[in-house]
Design a protein that fits this description.
single chain; mainly alpha; about 70% helix; globular
Length: about 450
């Protein structure tokens, strides 16, 4: 009954806001960030089974249905413009579904929906709405930065109070959760999911028009990264800061002064209690690197068994247990290879890389959105450092949102470049026509 009410609410919102789809897109992102997968049942009333997908998944499906009824041409146009991309994604989805449906262990459909199918559909909706007017990339950037700031504030509060604050009954069902832990995740599903969120949004700070907001938000993100104790996140944030300063259109003196200020701020953070957790993990990773090495060695010795077909979504976890590994394979490409085949895993993640590379080559710094291509690169690379897209979390929707922003921005850049060429060619063509008229031979 509660699920029916939630679906009805999603449908009503999709109908009422069918001409303001961007509000719905912001709502989807807000739901994923503010309601973790372990807390989604509070909205849907379903705790297990194939209908226990995230509450935001139902909203995305309703948005797409109403979009197809109200403005199908925008969807058709997006599909046609990126035909080979969506063909690839469709093949991956079919392969994942067939592998899961025919698996003797069963299951995996919820993860397939939340992390692969629906994020891909969300990507399609974003592209279709972008064709109806500019400003979508800037709006999504504002939404993401607002949500990441809120998430960091919650994480800081958790660290100060030593309390999870929200969804404790849901988090307590997770094997990694410990009430006495020092790693916090705000309202996301894992600390590393919060780290991923921060890493994907930090480069977007370069495009903020309100410069006075950049440093406070950057400091808040740095604190958030330290609270998650993510070593990869800390390195990624440092790379983002340095790249943003070096490629900014400022004078050399300004860049040098800002780098000195940031170095001083980093030194202050390193002297604070916040850095203790990360320092301890750097000094002793509790066998994490060794476990990853063993997992990769085990997979490389058997990759041929999963070259084309896998054993169904979730099979990688079962295989890790059978192999005696203490962790999962900690890499979504490897995990998806076991789940539905190495070929389709490479197609899936290869398509992500191709989107970012294509945008970098066609638009690059002329995209009009500083830091966006770097955010896209982070969306391709960082998820490969942990289970990310092979667990139920906001990772899927965040990665495909950033990729959609990259694609839309590249399209806008190409359009602007074409208009500029046409504008430049106009006067030249007119002058050529005038010259031709003046020099044309007279009769006789």
């Amino acid at each position: 009954m509660q699920l029916a009410l939630w679906i009805g609410l999603c449908l009503a919102a999709s109908v009422l806001l069918r001409t303001r789809v961007r509000v719905l897109l912001a709502a989807v992102l807000g739901l994923w960030i503010l309601v973790p997968a372990v807390g989604s049942s509070l909205l849907t009333g379903v705790t297990s089974g194939p209908l226990s997908v995230h509450a935001a998944t139902w909203l995305v499906l309703c948005i797409l249905v109403i979009r197809m009824l109200h403005d199908p041409w925008s969807v058709h146009e997006a599909l046609a413009r990126h035909f080979f991309l969506f063909l690839t994604l469709g093949l991956v989805m079919v392969a994942a579904f067939l592998a899961s449906a025919t698996s003797s262990a069963g299951g995996g459909m919820v993860l397939l929906a939340d992390q692969i199918v629906v994020p891909g559909l969300f990507f399609l909706i974003v592209l279709s709405d972008a064709a109806r007017g500019e400003g979508l990339v800037a709006l999504l950037r504002t939404v993401l930065l607002t949500l990441v700031a809120l998430a960091c504030v919650v994480a800081v509060t958790q660290w100060l109070t030593k309390s999870v604050l929200f969804y404790e009954s849901g988090y307590s069902t997770q094997y990694w959760f410990d009430r006495d832990q020092e790693r916090w995740m705000a309202t996301l599903d894992q600390p590393l999911a919060l780290s991923l969120f921060i890493c994907l949004t930090a480069p977007l700070l370069a495009g903020l028009k309100r410069r006075w907001l950049q440093l406070p938000l950057l400091a808040l993100m740095a604190v958030g990264i330290l609270i998650t104790q993510s070593r990869v996140g800390l390195v990624a944030l440092a790379v983002t800061v340095v790249a943003t300063v070096l490629f900014a259109r400022w004078r050399t003196r300004v860049k040098a002064a800002l780098l000195l200020v940031l170095a001083g701020a980093a030194g202050g953070l390193m002297a604070s209690p916040l850095v203790a957790g990360v320092a301890a993990r750097v000094a002793d990773d509790t066998g994490s690197a060794q476990a990853r090495g063993l997992a990769f060695d085990y997979f490389l010795g058997r990759w041929g068994d999963y070259a084309v077909a896998g054993q169904g979504i979730g099979a990688s976890y079962r295989l890790a247990v059978q192999a005696g590994l203490e962790t999962s394979f900690e890499n979504p490409t490897v995990m998806y290879s076991v789940d539905f085949g190495l070929l389709f895993a490479l197609l899936y993640f290869g398509s992500m890389a191709a989107l970012v590379l294509g945008a970098a080559l066609t638009a690059g710094p002329r995209s009009g959105y500083p830091g966006l291509v770097l955010a896209g690169a982070m969306a391709v690379v960082i998820p490969q450092t942990y289970s990310s897209l092979a667990t139920r979390s906001a990772a899927g929707i965040l990665v495909w949102t950033v990729l959609a922003m990259v694609v839309v921005a590249a399209g806008e850049a190409r359009t602007r470049a074409g208009q500029e060429r046409a504008a430049a060619a106009g006067p030249a063509a007119a002058a050529a026509r005038r010259r031709g008229t003046l020099t044309a031979p007279g009769p006789g």
